[in-house]
Specification:
The protein contains 17 helices and 19 strands. It is an alpha/beta fold. α10 links the parallel β17 and β18. Bound molecules: acetamide and zinc ion (ZN). Acetamide binds next to loops.
């Protein structure tokens, strides 16, 4: 019996059942929050769990068994996840997707027991949340002149944002599937949309455009500007209200420091704190924002770029995506909570030829360079992002994510000793055909692990601009 993600233990007990649904629920004491048992007999199907979430996962498993196997064998399943953070990220800043399109993605992710939807809602190319406190930010920050991305081009202005009621709809859709939504407001870099509306919050006060290309931009928020930080806190206030969960992501990736280096206000803070490295100033900035959120009862996640500086508060969790695995490991070894989102192979906005299905499946979190036994305990989970500079429609979004997200789901849930690529692959073919019938645009099997020649061609094509 093979499922995705494969459960912790399955014992076939002989015979089959005509039943299709759980017929009895039993409260089990001593079970973890996500742990459950399914006892399938010809006379009845019993789920045992300690929480509603546990019962939910028993249901999810039962539905998958029925969808994959015409005849349901009698068996006993005991299951629990490998990791507590099983995440998928969708970038709605570069291109926005409708509530219904997002629900389709979330629903497929929930079916393989993902439990964190990291929602990237602001970036250089657009700010996409309705705000009461700063309506001008939504109005002007959500619009760019055109699309000039390498693989997405349009002369027309591009705009869009989520109304509060739409955000609440997504939150309640996720809640019904035991998925926490983690909103990301990226700072102090990746903030051209914010700085377009408030150019006075850059170090030099120059005008800033909402960006129309991919890239890393020098326009960042002045770390010495008190008012800029007050405005960010106003955004966070509304974010905390909209997202009733315990965690907010505040970005911290790709922050070029050139403007800080020539800024009086930034240099003053450097001097006050006796700093010589501008990466440390980023830690002060991030710590202040995280402290503000902590007072509101929220934890913070930042990208691992924040570890370039010294002094990042140990309470802030780090999401590792690239470069400096030793730095990430050193912090994990000291006990910092760590999420792994390795660029290769978990960035699924890159072609299958660069990040193959097989590579996504074979990724092993504990192999992060420099991780000791303490560090392994600090890995709270894994997450796969889809960035959307090159993805402007839902068909493409689904094609890029699936089936690679099914492989990531197994990395997140299934015990290391239960993993087998060949077994996963065999059942994946059937699972994908079921989802295709339901209308999900899963990549065809021939694209999952391209030949070396195709891989080279896909890589070159990805980096050469379309006319
Ligand atoms: C990132 O990909 N810039 C986190
Ligand atoms: Zn400055």
């Amino acid at each position: 019996m093979r499922l995705i993600p494969q459960p912790y233990n399955i014992e076939l007990t002989g015979g089959t059942t005509q039943l299709r649904e759980i017929t009895k629920r039993e409260n089990a004491s001593g079970f973890g929050e996500e742990e459950y048992e399914l006892i399938i007999k010809s006379s009845g199907i019993t789920a045992r769990a300690g929480t509603e979430k546990g019962f939910f996962y028993a249901d999810v498993t039962m539905k998958q068994i029925v969808s994959l196997y015409g005849t349901v064998p009698c068996m006993k399943i005991y299951d629990k996840p490998r990791y507590q953070h099983r995440g998928f990220m969708i970038d709605c800043a570069r291109h926005i997707f409708s509530v219904d399109e997002l629900k389709k993605m979330i629903s497929a992710a929930a079916d393989v027991k993902f439990n964190k939807f990291h929602w990237h809602l602001s970036d250089d190319q657009g700010f996409r949340i309705e705000l009461e406190a700063l309506p001008e930010l939504t109005e002007k920050g959500s619009v760019r002149d055109c699309d000039s991305f390498i693989n997405c081009k349009s002369d027309k202005p591009y705009s869009g944002y989520f109304r509060k009621e739409e955000i609440r709809e997504i939150v309640s859709f996720c809640r019904a599937r035991y998925i926490d939504v983690i909103p990301e407001i990226d700072m102090p870099g990746h903030q051209s949309a914010f700085l377009h509306v408030y150019p006075e919050f850059t170090c030099k006060g120059d005008a800033v455009k909402v960006k129309t290309t991919q890239g890393i931009f020098k326009d960042i928020i002045c770390a010495g500007n008190k008012e800029a930080k007050e405005y960010l806190k106003k955004i966070l206030d509304e974010i905390c209200e909209l997202f009733p969960y315990d965690t907010v992501h505040i970005g911290g990736d790709e922050v070029p420091k050139a403007n800080w280096k020539s800024c009086e206000k930034c240099s003053e803070i450097m001097a006050e704190n006796g700093l010589s490295d501008y990466n440390d100033l980023q830690c002060i900035f991030i710590n202040e924002m995280a402290g503000y959120l902590k007072n509101k009862g929220k934890n913070c996640i930042v990208w691992n770029d924040c570890l370039k500086g010294k002094g990042l508060s140990p309470e802030i969790a780090v999401q590792h995506w690239q470069k400096g695995p030793e730095r990430t490991s050193a912090e994990a070894n000291k006990g910092r909570k760590t999420i792994l989102s390795p660029f290769t192979p978990f960035y699924v906005d890159y072609p299958y030829g660069m990040h193959t299905l097989k590579a996504a499946y074979k990724y092993e979190p504990e192999k992060l360079k420099g991780l000791d036994s303490n560090g392994k305990e600090s890995i709270i989970g894994v997450e796969s992002p889809i960035w959307t500079e090159h993805i402007n429609n839902n068909d493409r979004l689904e094609y890029m994510c699936f089936p690679r997200w099914f492989a990531v789901a197994e990395c997140a849930w299934t015990a290391k000793s239960n993993k087998s690529y060949n077994e996963f692959y065999e059942v994946l073919v059937r699972l994908c055909s079921n989802y295709r019938e339901k209308g999900l645009n899963i990549a065809p099997e021939k694209d999952w692990n391209p030949s070396v020649v195709t891989r080279l061609a896909e890589t070159v094509k990805f980096f050469i601009p379309k006319k």
